[in-house]
Amino acid sequence: MLYVVIGEAKPGFTLAEIQANRRAYVEWEQQSLYAGKYRTLARYEVVGLSPKKSFWIMECEDPAIIHGLLEFFGDVWDVTLYPVVDRSIANAVSER
Question: By the 8 A CB rule, do 80 and 6 touch?
Fold first, then answer.
């Protein structure tokens, strides 16, 4: 399943705290049961926005992987998750 994950840093967290949270995630993920369990993990950050906002495109079969991500970042980030499908514009236009 393909997911779009949108994270917005919670008010009151400094850039240093956000970066520390990211580093902690990388260390945690490498040692967790979720390491390497996703097909795709791409991260994009909105430039110049405050609070920080980022988007992740993830593809995985086990929803527990997504749950682990949301649980880890939940203290510092407001996270919204959307399951999505890959659909071309032409395909979307031709649907009735």
Answer: yes
Cα–Cα distance measured from residue 19 to residue 29, given in angstroms and rounded to the nearest whole number: 15
- Contact status, residue 2 vs residue 27, Cβ threshold 8 Å: no
pTM of the model: 0.76
b/e 37-59 (16+ beta carbons within 10 angstroms → b):
ebeebeeeeeeeeeebbbebebe
What is d(CA 69, CA 74) in angstroms, rounded to the nearest whole number? 8
pLDDT digits (tens, 9 = 90+) for 27-74: 888 887 777 777 888 899 999 877 789 999 999 888 888 888 888 888
Rounded Cα–Cα distance for residues 73 and 90 (Å): 36
- Do residues 82 and 12 make contact, with C-beta atoms less than 8 angstroms apart? no
| Residues ≥6 apart with Cβ < 8 Å to 7 | 53, 54, 55, 56, 73, 77, 78, 79, 80
